[in-house]
Amino acid sequence: MPYTEPYDALDEKTRDISRAITSLKEEIEAVNWYNQRVYTTKDPELAAIMAHNRDEEIEHACMTIEWLRRNMDKWDEELRTYLFTDGSIIEAEESAMGRTGSSSPKSGSSLSIGNLKK
Questions:
Q1: Which pLDDT value is given to residue 111?
Q2: Are 64 and 23 in contact (CB under 8 A)?
Q3: How would you class 110 by CB atoms within 10 Å of its CB: exposed for 0-12, middle for 13-18, buried for 19 or more?
Q4: Domains: count for the chain
Q5: What is d(CA 24, CA 72) in angstroms, rounded to the nearest whole number?
Q6: What would the pLDDT profile of 49-72 be if each residue is shown by its tens digit?
Q7: Domain range spanning residue 46?
């Protein structure tokens, strides 16, 4: 498992979060592989098996996202903002950030990643 900081400097919860994120990346990668195979095979039975495998990987990814929502700050807030919404995802983001209008920055405005003082 790749750690960017010294292993001993990380508490157990941070290591678990790293494990979950690594697993999530692997599940999403597997979804992509199986999905490509579904649409490239000429054998209908093999396509059905691959679709089943892909859907299992989606289930695993969703379970991991839910674990992250429960165990890592910010996931809950962001998932509540974007999941199961209707309309434009960009408008949902602008609404969450207290902005309205075009998704492109107006002249003179600064680009930022949000308020880091929270």
A1: 47
A2: yes
A3: exposed
A4: 1
A5: 14
A6: 999 999 999 999 999 999 999 999
A7: 14-81
